[in-house]
Amino acid sequence: MSTRFTTWLSMLFIAVLFCALVLLNNQLLSAYRVDLTENKVYSLSQGSQQILTEIDEPLNLYFFFSDKAAKNMTTLRNYAARVQSLLEEYAERSNGKIKLHILDPEPFSEKEDKADQFGLTAANIGTAGEAVYLGLGATNALDDQQVIAFFDPQQERFLEYEISKLIYQLVNPKQVKVTLLTDLPVGGGQNPMTGEFEQPWTFYTQLQQLYVVDKIASDATELPKGTDVLVVAHPKNLSEELLFSIDQYVMQGGRALIFVDPHNESDQMSMLAGAGMGANSSNLARLFDAWGVDFQPQEVLLDAYAGLDVRTQTGDVARHFGFVGFSSKELNAKDVTTSNLDLINGASFGVFKKSAKSGLRWTNLIHSTENSDLIDSAQYAQTREPLALSQAYKSDSKQYVLATRLTGNVKSAFEQPPEGIQRETFEQRTKDMNVILVGDTDLLSDRFWVQQSSFFGQTITTPFANNGDFVTNAVENLAGSNALISIRSRGTFARPFDEVEQLKLVAEQKFREQEKILQQQLDETESQLTQLQEQQGEGGALVISPQQQKAIDDFMEQKIQIRKSLREVRHQLDKDIENLGNLIKFVNIVIAPLLLVLLLMGARRLLRSRYNPNKSFSVAKEGQA
After folding, report:
1. How far apart are the C-alpha atoms of 104 and 432, rounded to whole Å?
2. End-to-end alpha-carbon separation of the chain, Å?
3. Which residue, 199, 290, 294, 440, shows the most beta carbons closer than 10 Å to its own?
4. What are phi and psi for residue 13, nearest 5 degrees?
5. Adjacent-strand bridge partners of 452
6. Exposed, middle or buried: residue 479 (CB in 10 Å: 0-12, 13-18, 19+)?
7. Long-range contacts of residues 543-546, Cβ cutoff 8 Å, at least 24 apart
8. Where are the extended beta strands (E) located within 297-378?
9. Which pLDDT score, from 0 to 100, does residue 613 have?
10. Residue 84 to residue 67: CA distance in whole angstroms
11. Are the C-beta atoms of 192 and 520 separated by less than 8 Å?
């Protein structure tokens, strides 16, 4: 009886101790957490914490979630709990500067009116068709207002960035002025090829959300006053006055982000003009020459390993060596603009080379893989089929610089102001140059990095690459603010199967060799068949000699053998990939658990050998005896 009483008493003591520890943890240790998730999704990044330290006035965050209306929506409720938990983390880390309000905007309530005042999106997905809110409204002491209309669960990995950006905009109401110099249709409008109205490019919309953007065309004669960051995209036929204005802007310490291209494939007007116009290139030759930069617009990069799969005109899927995607291995992990990015897609990249007279410091941001080659831009512009590019490709086992940062001391590209230009000051040299050069402009186009979909009347853009993040990071860095750059989850977390990609690359090279042989044989066959068709006897009947028939039969047999060899190459590729997969499965399913069991058994045996009560008791008895 006493044993049972002792057992119940022990269980009661454990339950009370458990409740006490939970209460102690919630009251005293809630601020101390250990996030063991791989991407630290339950803790704030260093960038978010930096933004919180810069708050100099109280902020009010109003989190609206229709808790009752979403009663049976398990997935949405779980995501809402995730959002609320992160918002509470912001409030906890703000040292009282952020006051969080949790509101359930029931129909016809004052809370619903407040949600409408913020302009939040009401999604009609409730059990009875009622509106469901899942958004955030925020205000500062000056009644400035920022909102997140609806937290899209599909963009969960960008959740922290969106909230931090909202707080950053409230803390820094005076925005940076960005001047965008381009003739590309980044502002949207009517497509000259289809006649349809197109939305503004996503990178342009993102810049407008963060900064005051002043867009000018190539016919301008000078840069707007007060420009904090200059973004140049696809410069063509710039006047000497505008070139001088850019030069002096840089000489006076201005920051610039410049995109040039040996062939822009996203310019609708160029596509409308036709392929016969040749490559659609851009350059800043005069400035580049003064900066010690060698950029040849006649050369386009082909990269076999970084090539993207595209759909051909026949409906097949093939790897395009000119349409490339560069992973974190090709991005500079030490520079703040590219350190957190995973993938940048583009097309027809140009390469930068450092001339002997360059005295600037080069910090390369993007480089190609070693499976690269350069092709004439005019030939590239006229080649539509990926197969033709792959046949023209010859790897030189060399990496090329595709984007770089130039810093240091440099001389002006002008000896004196151009004739007719009156300047109060003329800077001949700067010691504080900070310019980023990118050898592609197609990466700015939406088709290379975002997908668009309609969500309750709103256009939702879902990134599948980090092109927009790269542009925003570069502008933020050049503007002098790195807080938002270091926030995690700004891009996709793609993890390519490197070994599989290498196997595919080797097999594709074998395929190209076999395809060349097959194509030559097919051409010869067509020529022979054409000659045979011209050999007609009396009455228009086709006459084929026994020798010709034997030649055709021999060729058909050879053709079958070549196709068989192609199938064998494909089979070998699939076999190698399958063997690799089986090896990984065997390690994960058999080897890893077996090693764990053996490790636990060894630990158990070691502990038993160190402390064995029976052994101690027997030794004691022997001593007594």
Report:
1. 53
2. 37
3. 440
4. -65, -40
5. 461
6. middle
7. none
8. 299-303, 307-311, 317-327, 343-347, 352-354, 361-367, 372-376
9. 55
10. 12
11. no
Q: How far apart are CA 443 and CA 446, in angstroms?
A: 8
**What is the rounded distance in angstroms from the CA atom of residue 426 to the CA atom of residue 417?**
7
**Residue 354: closest CA among 410, 297, 292:** 292
**3-class DSSP state for residue 612?**
coil
* Local structure of residue 172 (DSSP, 8 states): -
- Which amino acid, residue 296? Q
Q: Which residues contact 88 (CB under 8 A, 6 or more apart)?
A: 100
What is the average pLDDT value for the chain, to the nearest integer?
81
What digits encode the pLDDT tens for the residues 452-474? 776 656 667 788 999 999 999 99
Retrieve residue 598's tokens: 């053996």
pLDDT tens across 306-362, in order?
A: 999 888 777 788 899 999 999 999 999 888 789 879 999 999 999 999 998 888 999
What is the biggest distance separating any 2 CA atoms in the chain, rounded to whole angstroms? Answer: 126
* Cα–Cα distance for residue pair 484/242, rounded to 1 Å: 32
Tokens describing residue 206: 């993102």
State the virtual CA torsion across 178, 179, 181, 184 in degrees, nearest 10: 50
Residues 447 and 463: their CA atoms lie apart, in Å, by 10
Q: Please give the model's pTM, rounded to 2 decimal places.
A: 0.61
What is the average pLDDT across 241-250? 95
